[in-house]
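Because discrete structure vocabularies remain unfamiliar, we first show an illustrative case, written as a sequence plus integers encoding its fold.
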Amino acid sequence: MRHNYKGRKLGTSPSHTKAMKRSLTAALLYNDRIKTIESRAKEIRPEVDRIITWAKKGDVHSRRLAIARLGGGEENKEIVREIFEKVEQGMFADRNGGYTRIMKLGPRKGDGAPMVIMELCTEPVKKKAKKTAEPVKAAKKVEEPEVVEEEAEEIIDVEAEAVEEVEEVAEETAEVVEEAAEEAAEEATEEAAE
């Protein structure tokens, strides 16, 4: 029995799984991109998100938590310092989560394990426009009668101009059709005479 051990086993002992997760997390934060197996990438995603969230707080306690999560050591302290500096400069300022991206590469040649590239999302988030709020406000807004009358007169003027243009085009088309009919009639009389 596993007795409350969380997460995937990843085919190794618990101590080796823990060390592998720390190593992969440190590699991703150091290089911004790693190539690994899909199950390992999905397993370290929460670890990376947690460290970046601590970096957004930026206090000493969060820094110490991040160092402890990566396993201490001078190399990991340097990695934590770099990620905290990047976040302080505004790297993930507009993101509230989802700091990583997983792109599938397909099966590995030797054993068919699904390979992925895992990377940090550094580009800014595109914000969606809210469409439902504006029409409700516009419906509640009451316009003055003078403004409505002016707009109605402008619309009527535009429509009248459009009707005149259509009539002119219709007259020109009728003239062209009449000329074509006269030419066809003359050709028919000439052929009949011959």
Summary: The CA atoms of residues 58 and 84 lie 7 Å apart. The beta strands are 33-37, 100-107, 114-120. The chain has a mean pLDDT of 85.
